[in-house]
């Protein structure tokens, strides 16, 4: 008995719906990526834990591909798929070749998703729920286009692709939309700012730096209206983001704000009370490196340079080249970095943080009150009212 085939549109309409879901999910990821880098207080709905966290994926250097966020490439890909699937909704012989073309595109999407799935599991070690949704969409598109080919196409894949391309070449409206879409996307590559790269303000004679009586480096006002004590970790993305925005504030209000630095590495080898398993391993050594640089009057240069290095996913680097970049003595840097006094300074900062019940980074102390994660707007409003 011949198997009954469901109506053509039962197979094709879900493909449009899936492609639209892919566009929406990718657009959300693109917006989330942007806000991760530009909004100091932003946290996505799927920042649930260390292992399930869309923000961790957005903050990874793997979130950028060929100079643009991966999510924007997703928007482009699913939009092209949607536009090609539209004319295929009408069942004619000359249009059926589009399904062979769409099958190959869905196969490409699925292979790309397998690659990024591997990256999130092995390299980033954190999963993104919305990314996983796009993976489901891609594999569903692959399955449905395969089903349509089996049910409605009798020609080979190569023949179908040739027919599909031949049909498109005679559809000026579709070709025009595709060309405009690709041109618009290419323009993004030229004009979109690289907001994911933080460029710290250059230290100048207008910005005062110094050291507190307790030995903590500070930058900003000599007679400040507001003193912000920051507790940070050099392998913490949120610390990098918060520090970037605070440095911009100091640059804008050099006579009003003083930013005081405390080392608080969430490194299991240094912060043993809070951290019981490997986490931000090496951040303690980076803290020692900046303490050593401070002894050659280059703390803030080293601080900003380290955040820039770690931001790009580099967790090891050549100390000699680092010293050359800062124009300081590399041998002295290594010696001071491994000195007992440098270690005592990190341990002292950690004890200060523990006494103030600081359980994560970034954290801030303003007028004796602790703020974990971010500073409330009311604190920053003090500056504007002065």
Report a brief summary of the structure.
This protein is an alpha+beta fold and 386 residues long.
Strand order, largest beta sheet: 3-4-6-5-7-8
Largest sheet: 6 strands, mixed
CATH class of the largest domain: Mainly Alpha
Average pLDDT reading:
88
SS-based class: alpha+beta
Pfam families: Thioredoxin_4, VKOR
Keywords: Disulfide bond, Membrane, Oxidoreductase, Quinone, Redox-active center, Transmembrane, Transmembrane helix
GO cellular component, one term: membrane
Domain Vitamin K epoxide reductase: 8-149
Description:
- The chain is of the alpha+beta class and 386 residues long.
- The protein has 2 domains: 184 residues, VKOR domain (de novo design (two linked rop proteins), Up-down Bundle); 178 residues, Glutaredoxin, CATH 3.40.30.10.
- It is built from 14 helices and 8 strands.
- The longest helix is centred in the N-terminal third of the chain and has 32 residues.
- The radius of gyration is 27 Å and the shape is elongated.
- It starts with 7 loop residues before the first helix and ends with a helix.
